Structure formats: C-alpha cells, structure tokens
Amino acid sequence: MFRKLTNSWELVKASASVLRSDKELIVFPIVSGIATLIVAATFAIPMFLANMFAQAFVSGDGFQPLAMIIGFLFYLVQYFVIFFCNTALVGAALIRLQGGDPTVSDGFRIAGQRIGTIFGYALISATVGMILRAISERAGIIGRIIISLIGIAWSLATYLVVPVLAVENVGPIDAIKRSTELLKRTWGEQVVGNAGVGAVFGLITLLLMLILIPLFVLAVMSESLVLIGLVAGIAVLAFLAMGIISSTLSGIYTAAVYRYAATGETSVGFNAEMVQAAFQPKR
Questions:
Q1: What would the pLDDT profile of 131-145 be if each residue is shown by its tens digit?
Q2: Which of 23, 118, 174, 274 could lock onto 170 through a cystine, CB 3.0 to 4.6 A?
Q3: Distance CA 247, CA 245 (A)
C-alpha cells in the first residue's frame, strides 16, 4: 500500500512538472467545469418546473418516458462537454510530452477536428450509463454489485479512449477497441487499475476535511455569520481548486500512459516504471 502511494506521489510530481511548464493546461478543466454547470442548470430548471423529479422518483412508478428522454439527453450533453474538454487537454499535453509548446487554442483545435467522433463516443457512453443505471435501480444487492463490476470494466477498457480520439483518426467504436488493444498489448489480457492521481488527492481531501470540519464547527459555535461564511467560502474554493488541479494532472498522466502504450516511449519526467504502474496483472 505504501509503495502504491509513493508511486502515486511520484507521478503527481511528474504531472505537476508538466503543468508548471504549461500552466495554460489548467484552462481546459475550468472550461469543462463551467460548461457542465451550465448544462446541469439548463436541464435541472425545466425538469424542476415541470415537476418531473416528483413524477420520476416520488410516485414510485419508475422513470416516466419523458423523464428518461431528458435524462438521456442530459447524460449525452454532459459527456460530450467533458470528453471534448478532456480531448483538448490530452491533445495539448501530448504536444508538450513530445517536446512541443502547446497553447490553449492548439488543444481546442485538436478537439474541434474530432468533434464528430467525440459526439459519437459521448452517445455510446450515455447509452451505456443509462442502461447500467436502469438495471442497477431494479436489481437487488447482488445485481448492483455485478453492475458495479461491469462499470469498472467499462471504465478500464475505455481508459485510453480520449488520447486515442486526440491522436488517431478513428471512429468512436474503433477508439474503444484501440484502447482495449493498447491495454492488453502493454499490460496483458487481465489487468486492473492501480493507484494514481486520485489516490493522492483523495488523501489530501481527507486531510483537508479533518482541518475544515473542526473550523466550521467552531465558526458555528461562535454564531458569527461572517466567520461561518468565511470558512464555508474557503472550503468551497479549496475543493474547487483541488478538483481542477486533480483533473489537469490526471489528463497529463493519461497522455503519458497513452504515449508509452502506443509508442513504447516514456515522456519527460515520467520513467517507465512509473507509467507501467498505471495497471497491474489481475491476480
């Protein structure tokens, strides 16, 4: 466990060194976050006004057809926004990892050239997500565990889809096949995900909560609205900053993993052992 955390910390530092060289890479997760909030508000407000949440969840009759359609469209648009920005991030990161000096426009240009394929992959992901969710809501505990395992397998198989979309001129289905092929060829037939950027930021989040929760309790006890608002504001900004930085470093690391899997070459700051540790044989 300690070794995994140590490796995770090393890859965070390697990814951070790339981010320090190209600070503009952080723009992509910021744009993604703002866009997804806009999309969420765009769908949530009409559904709330139409009382669709009550029809879908309170009545006990399950999803209504119109709610299912809007839910699917929400998934589709959200996935498209996320994949588009992630493709821009990974595309720009790959330019840096290959010795170039990318700009924000370079990243969005790469994503723009793949917009049709990105939409197709978003459509596939939204369909898979809706199907797994629908089955999970109707299944028992065992069924939900099985669906969770299927979801993990799907996430693993599609881990390298975004960099494939950014680099290779293939369709969404071929991108999924290519991602699976790269994983099998590089790490073997049976692999599982290893600790990564998320492990480090999960630990940082836990430590931050251990600090902020007592501060918030003290602020509430003081009955000072100013102090309560200050602590709450600091917490929101801290978690937003961590989310943005974590997403950026994850995109950079994914680009490094793809470059190693596709070409066998390591990137500046990333040694072979560090990248190989992204996955390990299933025992």
A1: 888 787 777 777 778
A2: 174
A3: 5
